[in-house]
Amino acid sequence: MKLGRIKQVELREIWKHEATNFTNWLAKPENLDLLSEEIDVEISLIDTEYNVGRFNVDIYAEEANVNRKIIIENQLERTDHDHLGKLITYASGLDAEIIIWIVKEVLEEHEQAINWLNENTDEKISFFAVKMEVWKIGSSDPAPKFHIISKPNNWSKSVKQSAQKSALSETKLLQQKFWDGFKEHIQKENLGLRIRKTNPQHWYDISFGRSDCHISLTINSQKKELACEVYIPNSKETYFSFLEKRNEIDSKIKGLEWMELPTKKASRIKVKTKGDFTSTSKWENYFLWLSNAALDLQETFSKV
Fold it and tell me: So what's the pLDDT on residue 80?
């Protein structure tokens, strides 16, 4: 067997500019998922180049389903005092609880500074220093790799303990089992949907290549209802751009509800059907309806 040689690629060969190239790349759902897996936090994008007083943070996000605010500062060079100061400024301005510094190289003094911040700030605050790497094997496509250099003390242990302490109700356990089954259905049928980690909750999110919205599936045992929607968390402009093409969209997907929600930041475009997810014997039918609805929304809204 012939074995290839691993070669590290210079970051600037892949991303010439931090803001216009790297930040835009990282903000895509599939790339934030890679970072989420590395630090064990499910990151949901809010905005890029988000205004903080006279400055802009590269990526402003939140922990999915928890709403803890996250800031990400990118630096395709070795760490410096200027960016460390920006991290603290952005964190204080946005009341962020998870602060991530992605760099080419972490200098020893800055690693010590991040460790000191983790040891001496509120236990809710978490600082990460993450090294960005790109590798190739022979003539293969370059592959990105996040490598944690500094993180909160006992991070993995505390995450596991908090999960163990969360007593799950019977409904939550059933929700977890339902979404596990749905994920298996997607994999078995080889459907073109991006699957992600399942959680014991009444919704399951699916990204489809846009940073300003995503598909959200919901199961409601009280209303005995299943729903599939395009969820737009923070952009009325996106909602109204879709609304301008409502006739075209409605002709492709029947029964859509257009929900601007004018008093809220979020908007929804939803289709629903009757169904009680506690009836486990009907799960296969529910999996089929949800996956078909998600595929219809993905196909339609990715092209408008």
Answer: 95
- For the chain, what is the radius of gyration of the CA atoms? 21
Mean pLDDT of 123-145: 92
Residues 175-210 pLDDT 10s: 999 999 999 999 999 999 988 888 888 999 998 888
User: Taking residues 219-228, what's their average pLDDT?
Assistant: 92
Angle between the 170-189 and 283-301 helix axes, to the nearest 10 degrees? 60
- Contact assessment for residue 215 and residue 228, using Cβ atoms and an 8 Å cutoff: yes
- Residue 162 in this model has a pLDDT that exceeds 60: no
| Domain 167-301 CATH assignment equals 1.10.10 | no
CATH, domain 6-163, list 3.40.1350.10, 3.50.50.60, 3.40.50.2000, 1.10.530.10: 3.40.1350.10
pTM summary value? 0.57
